[in-house]
UniProtKB/TrEMBL annotation:
One of its GO terms (cellular component) is catalytic step 2 spliceosome. This is Pre-mRNA-splicing factor CWC22. The keyword Electron transport does not apply. SUPFAM superfamilies: ARM repeat. InterPro entries: ARM-type_fold (IPR016024), CWC22_splicing_factor (IPR050781), Initiation_fac_eIF4g_MI (IPR003891), MIF4G-like_typ-3 (IPR003890). Residues 633-648 have a biased composition (Low complexity). Transmembrane segments: none annotated. The lineage of its organism: Eukaryota, Fungi, Dikarya, Ascomycota, Pezizomycotina.
Length: 669
């Protein structure tokens, strides 16, 4: 056979009777491991070798006969073994480390397609590497602008399985870029509200890392750990007693490095301690003062302590507790972990490495439920057993359901109740705006929010700036809210006569706040027509209070400059009319603003009446001289009466407004 001819059998050695052959060592197999030292065989004596080898020389190998030749199968096996002896062992790519040789993407995709069993170690290792890469990438690209988008993507990964990877990655990123510590702390605060075991593990690892850095006199490690813990105290992820213990340890036996680390901690967490735990803050600053005067420290360290006292004197204006753009967690949602510096803490380093999970699918399903609860996702049905007829029936039912309308306005009432309770339960205007923005407003009902803000403000006994700040913040958040509040101004001015006097005053003060803060544009005055026919006593009182509040908040000079703005003149033709056909409207407006103390705004109308207004026709001359005295007397009486008519309306306005305000006070009492 061809195979037999390809195999070369060992030939017998020549017979040597007189020559003594020196025993040689056995060739080392390429599959044997490295030897740890001299073996027992090298220490055997010659007699033992002789006994094993059958004497000094080797016995000659007998010549092979036809019966001794291997058959076809054995020859083929011998050939394969001889061929594979010079070939490398096959390598399982799925078991190689992630940092090994480069695997082309096409080959990697083929490997992933070939592995479909989720219980196999190969599949779980690939999923582990993908999880580690995803978490590391999301943390590395986090910044202030995109943190709100990164966190949902982070929750889409299995943070329960990869909590060790998350903690290691975020600690490494924070140590490499200390200015990003507030951003990483805000991310941990969000994750901690939903998965507190992740926040707890991070706190434990940071404490242990600080211990190691402190024992080894590693200043950089101690500084990064304490800075991260300080910001976690600010976000209430860890209790402030931990940072107090760290400060006590650092200042017990002060050195230049320990004082520098303590100063860095107080800059970050000092505002929080002054507000929440002033006793701890006072004790720390007393100790700092003693160190400054008594301890033998370097000049540089003394300057650092003096700078810290200056920072405290300025109320930590450059080191707030939480920056406004990173305040993303409600205080009642936060979970605070209580750990001490000397406690027995386990860092669970085993979570950083891959381990085969026999219940992999069950654990993935559990996290899928947690993720759906966190992200608000709804699990869709994957059943494919529905027929076309059933799907058509469902579509018909959906169409019918869409056609049903609630005529009782129950949804509208519930929406208004929700807005009202949200406003009343808020402690500050920023918290209120944040909660109101989270309300799911149906499309087309956005104006209900602005209406409820004005209504809630008018229900108070006196005007509260709290509501004005809410309206101002909404106007500056989005142009849509500005347009809605401008529409609300027009609506309330047209219906102001329906409100009681106290509510009228509060509504005027509310819109004066929006105008003074540039929340809404001053072109809203185009709805005001200051004429006798177009105004009522309620609308005139509304305008009077509005202008008084603008004067109080901005000052007369700014108000006059605003109304003289050329861009606004087209919108002010109603409130400051200059109608050539009916000059009585101009005189009415002049008298009104003069009566309320805003006569300076009427200078333009007065100039128009004096110079540009068409003059009345002259009176006809008398027919005879005998009637001169009578005409003169009649002309003088006409002039005096016209003069009295031109001056009397301001007095009339004052009397009317005073009487109306008297009714206001009477109704309130």
């Amino acid at each position: 056979m061809e195979v037999a001819s390809a195999v070369r059998l060992p030939s017998p050695e020549p017979e040597l009777d007189d020559v003594k052959e020196v025993p040689r060592k056995r060739d080392r197999s390429p599959y044997d491991g490295p030897s740890a030292g001299p073996s027992k065989r090298s220490r055997r004596d010659d007699d033992e070798d002789d006994r094993r080898n059958g004497g000094i020389g080797r016995r000659p190998a007998p010549k092979p006969t036809a019966d001794d030749l291997p058959d076809d199968d054995s020859r083929l096996k011998l050939f394969q073994n001889a061929f594979s002896a010079n070939r490398k062992l096959p390598v399982d790519d799925s078991k190689t480390r992630a940092g090994g040789a480069y695997i082309p993407p096409a080959r990697l995709r083929e490997m992933q397609k070939s592995i479909t069993d989720k219980k196999s170690p190969e599949f779980q290792r690939m999923a582990w590497e993908a999880l580690k890469k995803s978490i590391q990438g999301l943390i590395n690209k986090t910044n202030t602008a995109n943190i709100k988008m990164i966190v949902p993507e982070l929750f889409s990964e299995n943070l329960v399985r990869g909590r060790g990877l998350f903690c290691r990655a975020i600690m490494k990123a924070q140590a490499a870029s200390l200015p990003f510590t507030p951003i990483y702390a805000a991310m941990v605060a969000i994750v901690n509200t939903k998965l507190p075991q992740v926040g707890d593990l991070l706190v434990r690892r940071l404490i242990v890392q600080f211990r190691k850095g402190f024992r080894r006199n590693d200043k950089n490690v101690a500084l990064s750990s304490t800075m991260f813990l300080s910001h976690l105290v600010n976000t209430q992820v860890v209790h402030e007693i931990l940072i107090a213990e760290i400060l006590l340890l650092l200042l017990n036996k002060p050195s230049d490095d320990s004082v520098e680390i303590a100063v860095g901690i107080m800059k970050e967490v000092g505002a929080f301690l002054d507000e929440m735990k002033p006793a701890i803050a006072n004790a720390i600053f007393d100790q700092m003062r003693n160190i400054l005067h008594e301890a033998d420290i370097d000049k540089r360290t003394q300057y650092m302590i003096e700078v810290l006292f200056e920072v405290r004197r300025t109320k930590y204006k450059d080191n707030p507790v939480i920056r406004e753009d990173l305040d993303l967690v409600e205080e009642e949602d936060q979970i605070t972990h209580n750990h001490t510096l000397e406690g027995d803490l386990k860092v669970e380093d085993g979570l950083n490495i891959f381990k085969v999970d026999p219940d992999y699918e069950a654990h993935e399903e559990e996290y899928a439920k947690i993720k759906a609860e966190i992200l608000g996702e709804e699990e869709g049905s994957d059943d494919d057993g529905y027929t076309d007829a059933s799907s058509e029936d469902e579509e018909d039912e959906e169409v019918k359901a869409m056609d049903v309308k609630d005529q009782t306005n129950a949804d509208l009432v519930n929406l208004r109740r929700t807005i009202y309770l949200t406003i009343k339960s808020s402690g500050g205007f920023e918290e209120c705006v944040h909660k109101l923005m989270r309300i799911n407003l149906p499309h087309g009902l956005e104006n209900e929010l602005t209406t409820m803000i004005v209504e809630c403000a008018s229900q108070e006994r006196t005007y509260e700036k709290f509501y004005g700040m809410i309206g101002e913040r909404f106007c500056k958040l989005n142009r849509m809210w500005t347009d809605l509040f401008e529409e609300a101004f027009a609506h309330y001015y047209e219906t102001i006569h329906r409100f009681e006097t106290n509510r009228l005053r509060i509504i005027a003060q509310f819109f004066a706040h929006l105008l003074g803060s540039d929340g809404i544009g001053w072109h809203v005055f185009q709805v005001v027509k200051m004429t006798e026919e177009d105004t009522t006593s309620s609308s005139r009182i509304f305008v009077k209070i509005l202008f008084e509040e603008l004067l109080a908040s901005l000052g007369q000079k700014v108000v006059v400059e605003r109304f003289k703005d050329p861009m606004l003149q087209d919108s002010l033709t109603g409130i400051f009319p200059t109608d050539a056909d009916d000059q009585s409207k101009t005189r009415f407006s002049i008298n009104f603003f003069t009566a309320i103390g805003m006569g300076v705004l009427t200078e333009g109308m007065r100039d128009w009446l004096k110079n540009s207004a068409p003059k009345p026709k002259p009176l006809p001359e008398p027919e005879s001289d005998s009637d001169d005295d009578r005409s003169v007397s009649s002309r003088s009486s006409y002039t005096s009466s016209s003069y009295s008519r031109s001056r009397s309306p301001s007095l009339i306005f004052k009397i009317q407004i005073s009487a109306a305000e008297g009714q206001i006070n009477t109704s309130r009492t």
